[in-house]
Write a structure and sequence with these properties.
Layout (H helix, E strand, L loop, with lengths): L11 H5 L3 E5 L8 H11 L5 E5 L5 E2 L2 E2 L13 E4 L3 H14 L3 E4 L9 H16 L3 E3 L6 E3 L4 E3 L12 E8 L2 H13 L4 E6 L8 H10 L5 E6 L5 H14 L3 E5 L13 H5 L2 H12 L2 E3 L2 H13 L9 E6 L2 H10 L12 H8 L11 E2 L9 H13 L3 E8 L5 H5 L2 H8 L3 E5 L6 H9 L8 H21 L19 E2 L2 H9 L8 E4 L2 H11 L3 E7 L11 E5 L2 H18 L4 E8 L5 E10 L3 E8 L4 H4 L2 E5 L4 H9 L4 H4 L10 H18 L3 E11 L6 E3 L2 E5 L6
Parallel strand pairs: 1-2, 1-5, 5-6, 6-7, 10-11, 10-12, 12-13, 13-14, 15-16, 15-17, 17-18
Antiparallel strand pairs: 3-4, 8-9, 8-11, 19-29, 20-23, 21-22, 21-23, 24-25, 24-27, 25-26, 27-28, 27-29
Length: about 700
């Protein structure tokens, strides 16, 4: 019975799981793209109709071949094109004529190769859209769909047999990487639902397939390899929808070192960039960003096959029969943002039944057991860890030892019984293959390197934080935040920037703008010594670098001398562009923060917080989030800084007022949200934090305001 022609536009579900496929450029030669495509479709049991397309062959792989798609007896759901770029346009035209639903274009050297290729790509897409036909690619490696046995790809990863279906959905802008990850995951027992390589995203995009995977019943967790986004607001909304749907998303973003602004007027612009903004958007939506694609696959797998990490911020409990492996594992943890658990008294009591009291501590070396490493003692300790409220996961970095496979068999039941992740690391190379086989047979994850297990632990902890964030209340506007005053486009003076901050309830220093030394002296008497003197010019970015700042002026003579020096420096730095000087109160505190705000072209208003002062760009201790912010999220950003321990007080110094800092950040976030595209960049540096309970104050600020959009 002849199949009906596909409905246009073809639903993505029918592209991923087509009923009929034409392979253009099909060949008997598996050394060619088209030869591998049809070989893998047959090898992996594609259940639908296959139509080899080759003008020079009557049959291919025992199937009737057709010169053109339009000559075939039916219009296929999908045509896979593995043809030279020079013939691509004609083949797409024939597919459109034949009524093909979608084309998977493996062909490369289009937009990624230069203007001529980009022009060809544009013509191909326009032709397809005119016919209601979808395009996946070009420059992609197609689709792996183990669920429906539709391996629509030429990737050599498909040389491996028997890809059992599972729950990991993957969308990748790199086809070769997708194949590598499929093979890597298979080695570790990870199983996939659908994997899609989107290539140049000339028509169908990463966002389209992310939306599909959210609705796909077979997909339980999603991995994304992202180079660029076509629809950033939709991407953000889909990440939030994934969190609501209970499908964890793990992502790797290429281009982490790309600078967002090469000629920055402010710290904000120089610290912002494609990756920091992407990471902030993902964190806000509850998705997890990793720096290693293989770790991403392991995290996706762990989110399915391991019990969930109970709550963010919990500790790890490493235990094994090697002091070297457990200590090394513990030594590596801080670099991954992880900590050892603090064992409860009940846990310590259980450990004390098996080892000397002097050895009851994490990490646990079971070689210190009274009678040496024993399975029953190991199991008792792990059960105690599973019941301990501060333990997020147990880690077992196993080294060579007698009966490794037998010992390994203990762990999957203990993890499932305990309800917490158990991260099993087989560090012994090929000698440990029998142990890996035990884990595969138990359908339980394993890791070959400690770093992989730690990356998974960090990802699971972040995923737990995402679960909690999804339940957080919407941000509330604090009292007295806005509206913004009237603003002219262009750079603001420090005083203008501070008035903008003050309109949102952010405390700023008392100050006065003066034109001469007498006025400066009068202002200082009104404010009270000591004071700060600064030169004012919109043309100057870094005042201290140009000698335009004098601190701690304690009496009038010093102020008058400083006024003369700063005025001369201002004339040199900005001839004809000086706007006098400002006399400002001298603020002191326990710590300094940097706050920033900007409008990202893709994702909208953003705020950031970091270590403040003159070393802000050098230290790069900054965290970013979309605006507006809830108070709890603002506090979490600050406490996530590397300098956070300093803010909490060290060596007898009082703790800084983190509540006041969080309040200032929340208020700045509403300023950013209200101004929208008009806030090109804004710095508060430093925001001085006084001792806990005594507040914070913005000492310096600068901003650049964009023209208001007339539309």
């Amino acid at each position: 019975m002849e199949e009906a022609a596909p409905t246009r536009p073809l639903p993505i579900g029918r592209i991923v799981a087509p009923r009929s496929v034409a392979v253009i450029g099909a060949s008997e030669d598996v050394g060619k793209f088209g030869g591998r495509v049809i070989h893998y479709l047959i090898r992996h049991g594609f259940p639908g109709t296959l139509l080899p397309i080759n003008p020079n062959r009557a049959t291919i792989r025992g199937l009737p071949a057709w010169p053109r798609v339009s000559d075939a007896p039916l219009a296929p759901d999908v045509a896979i094109l593995a043809v030279p770029a020079a013939t691509l346009e004609a083949q797409i035209a024939d597919c459109a004529k034949a009524g093909v639903g979608a084309c998977i274009v493996i062909t490369g050297k289009l937009a990624e190769a230069g203007p001529e290729g980009a022009a060809l790509q544009d013509r191909v897409v326009a032709m397809a859209r005119g016919a209601g036909m979808r395009i996946l690619g070009p420059n992609c490696l197609g689709i792996f769909n183990p669920v429906d046995r539709a391996m629509l790809s030429s990737s050599l990863a498909l040389e491996e047999p028997d890809f059992a279906p599972g729950g990991i959905g993957l969308v990748s802008q790199s086809g070769a990487l997708m194949g590598t990850l499929l093979s890597f995951g298979r080695h570790h027992g990870a199983r996939f639902s659908r994997c899609i390589s989107v290539g140049n995203q000339a028509d169908l995009t990463l966002e389209d397939f992310l939306a599909y995977l959210l609705e796909d019943e077979a997909t339980r967790t999603i991995g994304l390899y992202v180079e660029g986004l076509r629809d950033a607001p939709r991407f953000r909304a889909l990440l939030k929808a994934a969190r609501v749907a209970g499908k964890p998303v793990f992502a790797v973003k290429a281009g982490r070192s790309e600078a967002g602004a090469k000629a920055a007027r402010s710290h904000t612009a120089s610290l912002a960039g494609a990756f920091p903004v992407f990471e902030a958007i993902c964190r806000e939506a509850g998705a997890v960003v990793l720096d290693d694609p293989q770790a991403m696959i392991l995290a996706c797998d762990a989110a399915i096959r391991l019990p969930p990490w109970p709550a963010a911020g919990l500790g790890l409990a490493p235990i094994a029969s090697s002091g070297g492996s457990t200590v090394t594992f513990a030594d590596m943890m801080p670099a991954f943002g992880l900590r050892l658990a603090e064992m409860a008294p009940a846990t310590c009591a259980v450990l004390g039944d098996w080892m000397p009291e002097s050895h009851v501590a994490l990490p646990v070396d079971t070689g210190s057991f009274h009678e040496g490493t024993r399975g029953d003692g190991l199991a008792a300790c792990i059960r105690a860890f599973m019941a301990d409220p501060d333990v997020g996961a147990v880690a077992v970095p196993m080294t060579t030892q007698p009966d490794m496979a037998g010992r390994t068999a203990l762990f999957p039941p203990l993890a499932r019984e305990g309800g917490k992740p158990l991260l099993y690391v087989m560090t012994a190379g090929a000698v440990g293959d029998a142990s890996r086989a035990v884990m595969r047979a138990a359908d339980f994850p394993f890791y070959d390197r400690m770093a992989d297990a730690l990356a998974v632990a960090r990802a699971l902890d972040a995923e737990a934080a995402g679960r909690a964030r999804a339940q957080a209340a919407m941000p509330a506007r604090p009292e007295g935040a806005g509206p913004p005053p009237a603003l002219s486009a262009g750079p603001l003076t420090e005083g203008e920037a501070k008035r903008l901050l003050a309109a949102y309830g952010i405390p700023v220093t008392r100050e006065a703008t003066v034109a001469d030394a007498d006025a400066a002296a009068a202002a200082a008497r009104a404010i009270g010594y000591p004071v700060v003197l600064k030169g004012v010019s919109r043309a100057v970015v870094h005042k201290s670098d140009l000698g335009l700042v004098r601190l701690g002026l304690a009496e009038e003579e010093a102020l008058r001398m400083a006024f003369a020096e700063v005025t001369q420096a201002l004339d040199r730095a900005a001839p004809g562009a000086g706007e006098g000087c400002v006399v400002q109160e001298m603020a002191r505190g326990e710590a300094e923060l940097f706050l920033g705000a900007m409008h990202d072209a893709q994702f909208g208003p953003m705020v950031m917080v970091g270590a403040g002062g003159v070393l802000v760009e050098f230290l790069q201790d900054v965290r970013m989030a979309p605006a507006p912010l809830a108070a709890g999220d603002a506090r979490a950003l600050i406490e996530g800084l590397r300098m956070a321990p300093l803010l909490r007080g060290l060596r007898g110094r009082p703790a800084a007022d983190l509540a006041a800092a969080a309040d200032a950040l929340v208020r700045l976030s509403w300023l950013a949200a209200d101004l929208g595209p008009r806030i090109a960049e804004l710095d508060v540096n430093p925001l001085i934090l006084r001792a806990e309970g005594q507040g914070a104050i913005a000492v310096d600020a600068r901003a650049t305001i964009a023209e208001e959009d007339a539309s």
